[in-house]
Amino acid sequence: MTSTMTEPDETTGTSPQRYHHTRTIEIAGRTVRAHVERDFYINQSRAVAEVLNDQMTWTSLAADAPSDWWHNTPTPGPDIDDPARFLSPVTERLLQRAATILATPPTTHTISPHLHGAISALLATSYGYDAEHRIDPDEITWAYTHGGALHIIEHPDGSVTFTKHHREDCPFITSRGAQECDEDCYFPHPADVERAHGR
Ligand SMILES: [Zn+2]
């Protein structure tokens, strides 16, 4: 496979069986790379976003199922002279998802009694006063990659807002609930996103 550095942070390569596109960027002080490999075979193709950890190895942050993009990209061959042209939408999408995951505020290791009560109320009002609800790892990943990052805002009157409705620079988020949303927060519905990708 021939590899060329097209930009300092970008690598592409082509061979008769496959082509790839890798982009490496800094997000919140961490080194993140998205690597997309379009093989002749769908099950040998992959699209992953990874973050460089303290041990200087790559930890997976997010992945795109080949079925989301493989069919929309051309078959490897001599015509593919610019892999980035076909794969950069996938690498961009992965980097955006990585940015969303890394932008999530660090988890508090202890929950205040008040916040514990609010989570109890969220469960009780959503699923019933004697509810039990188990969240799968897949659902956590899904929640990270759809909609906004989770924000928990404790208001002066004792109420608590749990929200994934707002973008990071929305006035409601930046003011911790003191100002109203400017109504510019919009996240496409997952079903619409999947339709746009041709599923
Ligand atoms: Zn908003």
List the topology elements:
Blueprint lengths: L1 E6 L2 E5 L3 E10 L2 E10 L6 E7 L5 E6 L19 H21 L9 H15 L9 H9 L5 E4 L5 E4 L7 H4 L15 H7 L3
The structure holds zinc ion.
Beta-strand residue percentage: 25-35%
Sequence of strands across the biggest β-sheet: 1-2-3-4-5-6
Number of domains: 2
Bulk shape: elongated
- N to C succession of SSEs: EEEEEEHHHEEHH
Helix content: 25-40%
Poorly predicted regions: 1-7
Summed over residues and divided by their number, the pLDDT gives a mean of 87
C-alpha termini separation? 31 Å
Q: Which ions and ligands are bound to the chains?
A: zinc ion
Continuous helix count: 5
Radius of gyration: 20 Å
Instruction: Kindly name the structural category.
Output: alpha+beta
Overall strand count: 8
Sheet with most strands? 6 strands, antiparallel
Description:
Residues 1-20 are annotated as: Disordered. By secondary structure, the protein is of the alpha+beta class. The protein is built from five helices and eight strands; from the N terminus they run ββββββαααββαα. The protein has helices at residues 83-103, 113-127, 137-145, 171-174, 190-196; strands at residues 2-7, 10-14, 18-27, 30-39, 46-52, 58-63, 151-154, 160-163. The strands form two sheets. It has a six-stranded antiparallel beta sheet, covered by helices on one side. It has a two-stranded antiparallel ribbon with strand order 7-8. Strand 5 and strand 6 (58-63) form a beta hairpin. The protein is elongated. The two termini are 31 Å apart. The relative contact order is 0.11. The model is unreliable at 1-7 (pLDDT under 50). It binds zinc ion (ZN). Zinc ion (ZN) binds at residues 166, 170, 172, 181, 185. The site of zinc ion has 5 residues, from loops.
